[in-house]
Amino acid sequence: MSTLLFQPHPILSDKPPSYDPGESCPFICEREARTLGGLLVTRVLRSPDNLAYRWFGERDWQGLTWSEIARRAGHWQRALLADGLKPGDRVAIMLPNGPDWVSLDLAALGLGLIVVPLFINDRAENAAYCLSHSEARFLILPDPVLWREIIAAGPLPAITRVVTVTGSMRPDSDPRVQDLEAWLARPEPLEDERYEVRERDPHAVATICYTSGTTGRPKGVTLTHRNILWNAESGLRAVHADEDDRFLSFLPLSHMLERTVGYYIPIMCGATVSFARGISELPDDLLHERPTILIAVPRIFERIEETVLVTLSAESALKRAIFNSAVALGWERFQHRMGRAPWCPRQWLAAPLQSLIGDKLRARLGGRLRFAIIGGASLAEHTSKLFVGLGIRLLQGYGMTETSPVISVNRLDDDDPSTVGIPLEDVEIRIGDDHELQVRSPGVMRGYWKKAQATEAVLDADGWLHTGDQVALRDRRLHIIGRVKDIMVMSTGEKLSAPDMETAICHDPWIDQAIVIGDQRPCIGALVVLDEAAKGASEAELLDRINALLTRFPSYARVQTVQFSPEPWTIDNELLTPTLKIRRHAVLARFPEQIAKLECRR
C-alpha cells in the first residue's frame, strides 16, 4: 500500500519568483533549448563572448568563451562524423574533468550520439564491461596504457575508434587507436567552425550512465535530453545561479550530480566553470579561482572540519570559547532567520563574531562562496552547525542517477540542514511499504539499458520509481532514514540501519572506514580500518570510543566486539566503488577470519 504524500507544487519560498513561469525565464528554459545541443546554441546566442570554462594547462590557467567552446565542439563533431558514427551510436568518455570532456560531450549530443561516461578511476574490468554492454563504438581516454588494461579485460569488437589524449601506439598493434592531435587533424580546420544540432527530439536518449553498484554488475541508466534539461531547470529554479557565478568542478563529470548541477546548469544560466586540477590541489584552486558555488560530497567539508578542530584544540581556552560562541550564536541567528527560533538580543553578536572567526574559514574557500550543494551522502549535523554557524551555507540535497539526478534540495531562504530539503517543482512523491520513497517526475529515467527485468523491478507501469531509500516526510521535507535493503534484522527481532551506525562510527578521527555486522545475530560487531594515529589502540579503548558515538541509537545498538581490517578498502583492491561506496559483500568475503571473530560476549 502506497500513500501519495506530495504532488506538484509551486516554488516553495517566502519570496515570489523573480520571473513569470508562464512567460519568460532569466535563464535558458527547457522549452527553449529542447535538447542539450540546443542548450549550447542558445547560450552562444545570448552571451557569445562571456567566459565559459577555465582550466589549468601545462603552465597556467586558460579559458574559453561560449563561442569558442561551440567552435571547438563543432570541429570535434566533424572528427566524429569522419569515423562514420550515426545517431544512436554510443560514444564513451573516460577522461578527467576538463575542456576535452566537455568538447566531446557537446559534440556527440548535438549529433544525436549517446554519451557513455566512465569513471576515470574505475577498474579496467568494470570499464570493459560498460563498454561491451553499451556496445560503444568510440572511446576517448587519457593514454594507451589504460586502453591496454581495458582491452586485456575482454574483447570489445564494437569499438571502431579509440582516441588517446596523450601518447600513441604503433598502428600495427591496434589500428583503431589514434592520438587526439592526429584524430582532430583529419578534418581540415575551418575559419568559421560551426556547431551542429542534428538531434532535435527532446525524448531521444542522451546518455547511458552506469551506476557503480555495491553488488553485482553496474546498470546503465538511460536518460533523455528532456530528463536532464527538466532536472537542470527545476534545480535552477530552486537554487538560483546566474552569469556572475563561478563553479569549481572537482567531482567527476561521470557522476550525474556534477554533470547536471555543475555542468549543464552553468550553461543554462551562463555561469563560468573552473575545472579543478584534482583533490590534492583543491585548496590552491579554491584560492585562485574563488568560486561562488561548489558541488560537493560531505567528506570534503568533514575533512575541513577535522582540520579546524585539530587546530582549535591547540589554542587557548579563551580562543576556543570565542570560536564555540561564534558557531553557537551564528547557528541561533540562522535558525531565527529560517523561522525556527525566536530572536534575542545576543544574536547581535553573531555578525561581528562571524567576521572575526568565519572570515578566516571563508578565505580558505576563496572568499566569495555563496553556498555549496551537498549530495551523495548525509552531512553530519555537527558539520552543518559549524559551517552554517560561521556563515558558510551548505545546502543538502537528495537524488539518484535514475532521476537525472536531483529529487529534493534545501533552499537558501528555506533551509533545514537536518533534512535533504523539499522536492523539486513537478516532483510527486509517495511512501510505500517499509517507508520506501517512490518518485514520479519528468526526470525519471527511461529504464536500464538492455535490462528489462531490472527496470520492471524499480519502475512500475504508472511511472513510479521505487528508490529503495527509506524516508520520513515532515513539514514538506524529506528525512532519509536508510536503505530498505540495508536494514539489519537481529536474531532478537530488533531492526537497525547499518549505514547510519557506520556513518556515526566514522565520525571518530581514529576510524577511516567501518562496517557493522548484526544481521541474524544476537549482538553487533564492527570491522574497522584505523587511521594511522590509532595504530596500537586496544580493542577495549576502541569499543569505548565507538559506543560513545552510538548514544542516540537504541540501547541494543551497541558494538560488543571489534576487529581491525588488515588493509584499507580502496578502489584498487575492489572493496570500494568508483564513487567510494563500500562494497559490503566484497569486504565480508575478503576478511572471513576477522568476521568470524566478531562473536557475542556472554
Describe the protein in words.
It is a single chain. This protein has 19 helices and 27 strands. It has 602 residues and is of the alpha/beta class. The strands form six sheets. The protein has a nine-stranded mixed β-sheet, with helices on both faces. Strand 26 (524-530), helix 17 (539-548) and strand 27 (559-564) form a beta-alpha-beta unit. The chain is globular and about 70 Å long. Residues 1-22 have low confidence and may be disordered.
Short note summarizing the structure:
It contains 19 helices and 27 strands. The chain has 602 residues and is an alpha/beta fold. It has three domains: 31-294, Rossmann fold, CATH 3.40.50.980; 297-484, 3-Layer(aba) Sandwich (Rossmann fold), CATH 3.40.50.12780; 490-596, GMP Synthetase, Chain A, domain 3.
Number of strands: 27
Give the strand line-up of the largest sheet.
Answer: 3-2-12-11-13-14-15-16-17
Count of helical regions: 19
CATH topology of the largest domain: Rossmann fold
Give me the Rg, rounded: 25 Å
Range of strand content: 15-25%
Biggest sheet character: 9 strands, mixed
Which regions are unreliable across 5 or more consecutive residues at pLDDT < 50? Answer: 1-22
Shape: globular
State the secondary-structure class.
alpha/beta
Overall helicity = 25-40%
Specify the CATH class of the largest domain. Answer: Alpha Beta
Note the gap between the termini.
41 Å
Integer tally of domains? 3
Averaged pLDDT, please? Answer: 90
* CATH architectural arrangement of the largest domain: 3-Layer(aba) Sandwich
